[in-house]
Design a protein that fits this description.
There is one protein chain. By secondary structure, this protein is mainly α. The protein has a single domain (6-113), classed as de novo design (two linked rop proteins) (Up-down Bundle), CATH 1.20.1440. Helices cover 79% and strands 0% of the residues. It contains four helices and no strands. It has helices at residues 10-25, 32-54, 58-84, 90-113. The protein starts with 9 loop residues before the first helix and ends with a helix.
Length: 114
């Protein structure tokens, strides 16, 4: 089945859930700059998938998917720091990191199909 809307893409749906989880996980954080950066990076993953999809050109879609993949790496990088600074638990880190790795692989797969 060909996706008619970006909302139909499983990778967009999973990246939206990741962003929501990041928001909930850091909701109580008083380190506002850290919280803002990891939240913005997580939202960037889903938004770049959406923006690229709407461009209706495979080359432009690929371009935005690479940006999305980069934002996914930024989330993982910040999760490592969050763990080392005791901002999140080991369990939350492992869950969020694994999900971001899987999303990154899904993005790579989508890039290959284009």
């Amino acid at each position: 089945m060909k996706a008619e809307r970006f909302e139909d893409l499983l990778v967009w749906q999973r990246s939206k859930e990741l962003a929501k989880t990041i928001y909930f996980c850091f909701a109580e954080s008083k380190d506002y700059s850290f919280k803002d950066q990891i939240q913005r990076a997580s939202v960037s993953v889903m938004n770049n998938i959406a923006e690229g999809f709407e461009r209706k050109s495979n080359n432009e879609f690929k371009y935005f998917l690479y940006i999305s993949k980069g934002s996914c790496a930024e989330v993982r990088s910040m999760l490592v720091l969050a763990l080392e600074l005791n901002k999140i638990s080991q369990t939350d880190y492992e869950k969020l990191n694994q999900e971001s790795v899987e999303i990154s692989k899904m993005i790579s797969g989508l890039i290959k199909t284009l």
